[in-house]
Design brief:
The C terminus is likely disordered. The protein is an alpha+beta fold and 693 residues long. It has a 4-stranded antiparallel beta sheet. A 4-stranded mixed beta sheet has the order 7-6-5-10. It has a two-stranded antiparallel ribbon with strand order 8-9. It is built from 20 helices and 12 strands. The N and C termini lie far apart (86 Å). It is flat, with a radius of gyration of 38 Å.
Length: 693
């Protein structure tokens, strides 16, 4: 077998999985969707088993896969017949339809069980095959081929009858035309796949026809969704089919690259697949945004505003339609269900909104047998005008109640359409105002960045802060701790994180994207941007209590796309004092002065740098400096221990070494060596004594 011949099977496997899962996930309550999902499941199993048979080299695995393939193939004709009946008959099946479907599934199940129980003797024309009820193997094989061909032919015949009886035009006629083409492609491709391998002729064209029929059947299943407009059904179908084909090409490319990488690199690890998975996750959101922008390009402003409204409501654009577009399909299904010959929906001005039948009523009075008002919330939106039924019988009470519910649905749809149109217009105006505001903000920020630095503020001393960052973050102003960091509309924890970020970065500053990544990682970009600027404004007013206008703020500056904290705002910090004391100890000529400087630095270190700071304290940005300061503190403890050891102050030296071990997690060889030199060990209760006492 040529490798090219498994390409159609691979395409069927991917398309069946993609389309079946997509249709079932979007419309799980509809019978046609569930039956289509069953059909695609069997197709995916059948095609995957065929691919596995070709690729595997183990005879036992090949026989098992052949049994799975035969099982799926036995049930596929019945599943196709089931899809045809669900689409054309709905839930009103007659006895012949029920009997035919039950018989098809029963025969398929029997053959499936036989194929799984004895995988070495399948039901086939060519040996090795199975004899049954005294009939030779070839005869049983041809009989089973004939049964499956009859089931497929019955599916074609039933869909042809429904297509012929539907009429000459309308959305239902289009759907049945597509389903008819799908069933013909699937039936012919299935016959090719059944017959030709039995006579020793491999046939890739049957798989191609089955793949084509699968795509057409997906459109029929999507279009069957309740009250779905034809245009939206076509758009959803083309999106689903295109995405499925792209997925198949993507997966095939990955498999090819994986095989090439293993051959070239001589490794068994899935390197290409792993990297492709990471790349897919990283690029999924940007690609989705790009596709959404391409779909929006060229749309009229009204349609673009409506799409923005749907995004705000959280609806999926490819399967959501405007309420007024559901009126036509709803009227069609209503008339088909009650066998009404002609009907129309009229607006209050008399213009028709939707019609059904060859001769629908031209006005609200001509040809009308029943007229129902379209009313919702004490407002009238028109009339539902119904002609006679095909059997010319009067409308029953139950049918009248159903029609009244339909009229209420239409009225509510028109009312919702009006409200959504007004909301879309308001959202469009809000979007334009926001874009203008952002443009003014950028212009103002650029202008402020070009202004010369202001003269020193005499009142800056009243805003000076004392920052304790070695351990839990504590900031004091005039001896009082700062407890409220944000304003009335800004979270105080988020504002504290912004301050810690700016304090840690110093003159390097931080970009807005870094703040958003740490503090608002799971928030939509536009909402996160708004929250950042609101938090920044609240923090500026906290740092500058006398600030009257935002344009006069100096505590936090913005230059070259980065935000920086004014160094003059920090009067004292334990981090700077810690570094100063370490430097003083290194430069001190007097051992006592050096020891005093080290003890002062030791007292300043209350714990890990920014230990409990919200958001920023748990981010990766703080780890580098936190590790550096922790290492300096350990060096300080070791230096103190050695100095106390030189002065024969054994308890003090041992305490320093043990604190170093505690800080490093018992991973400090110098501290262990120091304790060994002192001959000291830990005793229960924290008592320290010489070894051997």
């Amino acid at each position: 077998m040529n490798l090219f011949w498994i390409v159609p099977d691979f395409l069927i496997a991917v398309l069946a999985t993609w389309l079946g899962a997509g249709v079932l996930a979007r419309t799980p309550r509809y019978q046609v969707s569930r039956v289509f999902a069953l059909l695609t499941l069997l197709l995916a199993l059948w095609s995957t088993a065929q691919i596995g048979e070709y690729l595997t080299g183990a005879d036992g695995v090949r026989r098992t896969l052949h049994g799975c393939e035969a099982t799926a193939a036995a049930l596929l004709p019945a599943a196709l017949l089931h899809l045809v009946l669900a689409f054309t008959q709905g839930r009103r099946w007659g006895r012949p339809q029920r009997a035919a479907l039950i018989l098809a599934y029963a025969l398929g199940a029997v053959v499936a069980v036989l194929s799984l129980t004895d995988r070495q003797h399948p039901i086939a024309v060519r040996p090795p095959n199975r004899s049954l009820a005294g009939l030779p193997g070839p005869t049983v094989g041809w009989l089973w081929i004939g049964v499956r061909a009859c089931i497929l032919g019955l599916a074609v015949w039933w869909v042809w009858r429904a297509w012929r009886a539907e009429g000459q035009q309308g959305a239902r006629r289009d759907q049945l035309t597509v389903l008819f083409a799908a069933v013909v492609c699937g039936a012919v491709g299935g016959v090719f796949e059944i017959v030709l391998p039995q006579v020793g002729l491999p046939d890739p064209f049957g798989a191609v026809l089955i793949a084509s029929g699968l795509g057409l059947a997906a459109y029929a299943a999507i279009a069957q969704r309740a009250f779905l407009a034809p245009g939206l059904a076509r758009r959803t179908f083309f999106y689903s089919l295109g995405a499925g084909v792209v997925t198949a090409v993507y997966v095939g490319l990955l498999l090819g690259l994986e095989k090439l990488a293993r051959r070239v690199l001589d490794i068994d690890a899935p390197v290409v697949t792993g990297l492709a998975l990471v790349l897919t996750i990283a690029l999924f959101d940007p690609v989705r945004q790009r596709v959404r922008a391409l779909l929006d390009r060229g749309l009229p402003r009204r349609d673009l505003a409506y799409r923005r409204l749907l995004r705000a409501l959280g609806d999926e654009l490819l399967t959501t339609q405007r309420p007024e577009t559901a009126i036509g399909p709803a009227l069609t299904q209503l008339c088909r269900a009650l066998r009404i010959r002609d009907a129309a929906i009229f607006a209050p001005g008399g213009e028709p909104l939707a019609t059904f039948g060859l001769r629908p009523p031209a006005t609200a009075t001509t040809g009308a047998l029943l007229v129902l008002p379209l009313a919702a919330s004490d407002q009238t939106f028109g009339q539902l005008v119904l002609g006679p039924k095909r059997n010319r019988l009067p409308y029953s009470e139950r049918e009248t109640d159903l029609l009244a519910n339909a009229a209420a649905f239409v009225a509510t749809s028109l009312q919702l359409a009006e409200r959504q149109a007004s909301q879309a217009a308001a959202l469009d105006a809000l979007t334009q105002e926001r874009a203008a505001l952002l443009a003014q903000r950028d212009t103002l920020a650029q202008a402020l960045s070009e202004v010369a630095p202001p003269a020193p503020d005499p009142a800056a001393s009243t805003r000076a802060l004392h920052v304790h960052a070695l351990g839990p973050l504590r900031v004091e102003r005039d001896g009082e701790p700062v407890r409220q960091w944000g304003g009335a509309k800004a979270g105080t924890r988020q504002a504290e994180a912004v301050f810690a970020f700016l304090f840690d970065r110093g003159e390097r500053g931080a970009a807005k994207d870094e703040f958003l990544d740490v503090i608002w990682p799971d928030v939509d970009i536009e909402k996160a941007d708004l929250a950042f600027h609101r938090t920044l404004g609240g923090l500026r007013r906290t740092l500058e209590p006398d600030l009257k206008r935002g344009s006069e703020a100096t505590a936090i500056s913005y230059h070259n796309d980065r935000y920086r904290l004014d160094p003059a705002l920090i009067a004292w910090s334990d981090v700077a004092a810690f570094s100063e004391q370490l430097a003083a100890a290194r430069l001190a000529a007097d051992p006592a002065a050096a020891l005093a400087a080290l003890e002062e630095a030791r007292a300043l270190y209350r714990g890990d740098y920014l230990d409990d700071c919200p958001f920023y304290g748990d981010s990766e940005y703080v780890e580098e400096r936190r590790t550096l300061l922790r290492g300096q503190f350990v060096d300080l403890l070791l230096a103190l221990g050695e100095r106390y050891e030189a002065r024969d102050d054994t308890p003090a030296a041992a305490a320093c070494y043990r604190e170093a071990l505690q800080t490093t997690g018992d991973d400090c060889l110098r501290a262990e060596a120091g304790l060994a030199r002192l001959g000291r060990v830990n005793q229960p209760g924290g008592r320290v004594s010489k070894a051997g006492d």
